[in-house]
């Protein structure tokens, strides 16, 4: 089944050229099913790129997905046109009274700032708090994961001595967890960040479960015990050339940047990069949509609070 996106959204043309199944609202309205309502809080500056990356992954399941794009009112975007934002995005105030099956909160290039110094921090905190009883399951990605862990569980971040930059091997710690269903024992995923989350603090928290880690990159995947909150510290949504573009951009400016680990053949940035994380990325989002959203969210979203209370003692 497809992901339902507006006809004019730039990501739609890219996905259709890749033979990704997308659907218009008109066609979706003729199907006798309730689509999953998924909101995406897009904090990335290059919003169209991020839209395309996430929609590609969300489209790869047998479920119909209806997307709502959300932007910050308290931050002025300098890399995305006002026309695009006004056409395709809604504000938190516009969706505050609505309920969603799932929510994705993206990363953001603000990780070196204290959380409270981010200009939209108060607005994001309101969204994180709202998600507890208006969203059934939330996927937090990279800085979004750090923000969620800090707001919900008071777990901070630490600045790394060197940028965690490249594609790293990770190990599944609990293969029984539904989010890693079908995973190999080890898998790869991209990282691009200057800060990290203290693994020992997440492990010690009674409401959290660590599901995958890397000897080099540290914590990768964790979830709340009830499965309603997922935290991904890397960027499984990245395209083949995302790290290459970041590397060549900084290198051309004379900025200090190392060749991304495990990405270019023989660490040679003149060669095309190898993509080794794509299957894991698709499986991550398909498992989330199926096991954490579709299988558990109530058909009538008005029943979400009662369903959430029933799920409090249910570990997946």
TrEMBL record:
Pfam families attached to this UniProt entry: HTS (PF04204)
Gene Ontology terms describing biological process: L-methionine biosynthetic process from homoserine via O-succinyl-L-homoserine and cystathionine
Entry annotated with the keyword Acyltransferase: yes
Residues involved in substrate binding: 163, 192, 249
Sites marked Important for substrate specificity: 192
Pathway: Amino-acid biosynthesis; L-methionine biosynthesis via de novo pathway; O-acetyl-L-homoserine from L-homoserine: step 1/1
Superkingdom field: Bacteria
EC number annotated for this UniProt entry: 2.3.1.31
Entry GO terms, CC: cytoplasm
Class of the enzyme per the UniProt entry, highest EC level: transferase
Record-level Gene Ontology MF annotations: homoserine O-acetyltransferase activity; homoserine O-succinyltransferase activity
Annotated catalysed reactions: L-homoserine + acetyl-CoA = O-acetyl-L-homoserine + CoA
Protein's cellular compartments: Cytoplasm
Feature type site, description Important for acyl-CoA specificity: 111
Keyword list, A-Z: Acyltransferase, Amino-acid biosynthesis, Cytoplasm, Methionine biosynthesis, Transferase
N-terminal signal peptide: none
Chief location category: cytoplasm
PANTHER family referenced in this protein's UniProt entry, alphabetically: HOMOSERINE O-SUCCINYLTRANSFERASE
Similarity section: Belongs to the MetA family.
Family matches, as NCBIfam families: metA
Function: Transfers an acetyl group from acetyl-CoA to L-homoserine, forming acetyl-L-homoserine.
Listed name of the protein: Homoserine O-acetyltransferase
Name of encoding gene: metA
